[in-house]
């Protein structure tokens, strides 16, 4: 049963007014993200059957969570000791559906993989000592699979020459950067990210942030987006990266999309609904202007950057970013991350929206298929 409150707060309001207290803006949307049992398990890592891992987007996922997978056992030829000393000698971990995993499928090798979304790069490994028959366990820093990086064209990896350039890239690879790039593809963030979203900020950060946003009239200082009606999408960025430096010269308001694209901003999880709203508002405010490929990069979801890199090399026409698809009732039923409306060709992140656009005569690619069928995609745009 619901009850209506009838308490008279007029006296309290009058007292507050006399005190000169400032009216504080607050958002009813909770920023606390509940941690489900599956999230705790993924942070620790556990074994699953390969068939239970999903690759709908091309990225490895488990129950709607972005994950990586690897084979924990390193028993062969007492390899465990070598791997504990040098993780680069061990089994590679996978972040996407790649050529190596496809070979495993074709050979019928469905090893039990460990799935995890722990982002520190350290992996529990084990192996049997062939001489003593004892189990040896420990942690080591395994390397990412190069085939996965090529399959996603992460940070233009496919353009790097084989050999030293690619080895250097792998050596400097950070899981947090990878998960951040594709965060809008998934509904849930890793627990390590959820627990550290507000770490290192000063205690008065909420007040400081509000003051800076008001000072700039709730406008993103990079793309120019007016977010006065959507204040939660406007962040305040520390220019020098030092979160304890709240001097005015070091603070600038950025929309969440521009903020996440700043250097060294891993662990910034942005929901797909928020990136869609940003695109919609940019279109409505006439800010979705594209004169060159760099403009497309700046406007598009970072998870699509690998596709954009290849399309630029094929010299296709510039796409629309955040194109909204309407049905016969003028209702928006889908949004394309990249679109060529005259060709009715698009690339979408959200599968249900891709299906709706297909019903209206569009040829829609996922990121996965756009990358693996780039020749066909480019040909259809000429």
UniProtKB/TrEMBL annotation:
InterPro entries recorded for this chain? HNH, HNH_nuc
| One function term, GO molecular function aspect | nucleic acid binding
Q: What region holds the HNH nuclease domain?
A: 207-260
Specify the domain of life of the species encoding this protein.
Bacteria
Protein name per its UniProtKB record: HNH nuclease domain-containing protein
